[in-house]
Predict the structure.
Amino acid sequence: MQKEYDVVIAGSGPSGAAAAKGLVNDGLSVLVLEKKKLPRYKICSGIIFRKSQDITEEYFGEIPKSAYVTPELLKGVRFWSDSENYKDYPFTKDGCGAPNVWRSEYDYFLVKNSDAEIKDCHALTGFSDKGDCVVVKVHDVLNDKVIDIKCKYLISAEGGKSIIREKLDPEFEKGLKWFTAYQNYYEGSSNLDPDFYHGFLEPQYGEVYAWFSVKNGLQIFGTAAAKGKKIKPYLLKYTELLEKRFDLKRGKMVRKSGCIGNNMCPEGKFYLGKNNTLLVGEAAGFLNAFGEGISCALSTGLFAAEAISKGIKSNNNALELYTELTKRERKETTVSWRLGARLAGRDLMPI
Ligand SMILES: Cc1cc2nc3c(=O)[nH]c(=O)nc-3n(C[C@H](O)[C@H](O)[C@H](O)COP(=O)(O)OP(=O)(O)OC[C@H]3O[C@@H](n4cnc5c(N)ncnc54)[C@H](O)[C@@H]3O)c2cc1C
């Protein structure tokens, strides 16, 4: 690892990988920091929508077979308005369906193919803006050492919970509201069609919506509620529905996981950065309705790369360029929540 890079990126998810790819393509030196060991687990349904697939293929190549699970393609989402009635929304016009992947493998494929230098088990813990450069504090987790690294630009691709955003603007952070999502993975079976991703919209099963999908035979389901509110009663009721109505048989629990998200996206509260620090993907507030976030993570990562490359090469203001480049994506994200709320017949956020 060098002591100086053009750009340091915190986070190796799709937004970090896309930013890294764009910057490396433009000839800049890039370090990607990832606090976890790679390939890392990410709570997700792992559906790669058309836009994500197109960007992936254009910049990184074909999604590797090792990332796919069975069923390899999901036909669409089946939204249940109650336990008997549903409506299908196909993922693709041609009916082929969307790739169904493990995020650990897909994300690792992306970041490896960015050709940037990657340091896993290295967490960004702080930074200081010196005007003409940024000095980043990095915790080398395995050796328990703190390292200082200098860069021209810093990118936060940290996901919804961002240390960088917290430090840049504590007031903005104070105004955020949070929700908790929880997901179970069981060996077993059910009679829900595994070729669909299922969403249950009745508020008794969760405050956003409750979801179900199948990966390699695992029965994966979860729900969400406002942070501080009890999620367990929703999950119990939902599990009961799955067991009684859809004959869910639960074998061994293989994994349970949770995460938190915030109200930036549904309320159009984007935070794009300050001075020489840019935020991308969920860290900046890019997440579409029903929790689709890979497409906007990829596109905003690429926009940040373009803005920084132009900033460095032509002495332009990267943040202004990035703000301009993301205008359409911000509009689309905001519109998606409005459409989602219309489809669900209610506000989609518990907060
Ligand atoms: C239950 C659930 C299901 C979902 N299903 C889908 C789906 O099917 N399809 C879809 O498109 N989207 C889905 N999403 C949304 C999608 O997962 C996210 O929007 C997407 O991962 C955001 O990408 P990102 O790169 O911004 O952040 P992330 O993918 O969250 O990556 C952030 C990375 O940064 C690392 N990191 C954080 N802080 C630091 C630090 N200080 N230093 C170093 N590393 C750090 C983290 O360990 C992580 O690896 C789902 C989300 C949830 C919660």
Summary: Residues 274 and 294 are 24 Å apart (CA to CA). The pocket of flavin-adenine dinucleotide is lined by residues 10-16, 33-36, 40, 42-47, 49, 52, 123-124, 157-159, 163, 181, 183, 222, 259, 281-283, 287, 291-294, 297 (CB under 6 Å). The longest helix spans residues 294-314.
